[in-house]
């Protein structure tokens, strides 16, 4: 039992470290023949400022029932409650490793931890592993979103603190997470 607990703490700590990273909005998107100018990344709360948070429709191929839907192409999450009602939608900042489009379940959570880089992280909700990297949603307590190191595989999907709290309240252990493109 102690071994499992230590492994879980190590996985959450690793995710917390990853969650302290941020990727540019255009990373992984198609590009023109010339290299685009690097853009300064912004936190999800800053990107959503002044926007209607319900302005994006739930993807058609996102399953049924109560679930979290994560759209890799849109960098957006929907929390879908009873009767297919979207209770919240928001933009997220992806990491350098994406989960494969599929249906998952929340496997572990941590309310508040310190990442291996010393950054306090909260509302960590893990649901997958890709390329040996834990994948999940989280928010940095200080709202930081530093530029990620593209040579390091990270799996933390960054949310604003407000959106992280909403995810935490919605997605308990076993909650379905549907990843679409």
TrEMBL record:
Q: Cross-referenced CDD domains, in alphabetical order?
A: YkuD_like
Map out region (Disordered) in residue numbers. Answer: 25-67
Which keywords accompany this UniProt record?
Answer: Signal
Locations of Basic and acidic residues compositional bias? 36-59
**Is the keyword Signal assigned to this protein?**
yes
InterPro entries in the cross-refs: LD_TPept_cat_dom (IPR005490)
Its signal peptide is: 1-21
* Stated name of the protein: L,D-transpeptidase
| Organism listed in the record | Streptomyces graminofaciens
């Amino acid at each position: 039992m102690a071994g499992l607990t230590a492994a879980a703490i190590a996985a959450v700590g690793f995710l917390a470290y990853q969650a302290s990273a941020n990727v540019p909005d255009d990373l992984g998107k198609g590009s023109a023949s010339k290299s685009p100018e690097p853009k300064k990344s912004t936190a999800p709360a800053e990107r959503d400022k002044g926007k209607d948070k319900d302005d994006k429709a739930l993807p058609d191929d996102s399953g049924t029932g109560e679930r979290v839907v994560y759209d890799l192409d849109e960098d957006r999450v929907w929390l879908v409650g009873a009767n297919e009602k979207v209770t919240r939608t928001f933009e997220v900042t992806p990491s350098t490793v994406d989960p494969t489009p599929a249906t998952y379940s929340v496997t572990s959570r941590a309310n508040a931890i310190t990442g291996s880089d010393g950054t306090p992280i909260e509302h960590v909700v893990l649901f997958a592993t890709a390329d040996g990297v834990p994948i999940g949603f989280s928010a940095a307590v200080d709202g930081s979103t530093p530029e990620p190191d593209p040579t390091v595989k990270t799996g933390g999907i960054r949310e604003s603190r407000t959106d992280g709290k909403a995810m935490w309240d919605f997605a308990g252990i076993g909650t379905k997470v549907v990843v679409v493109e």
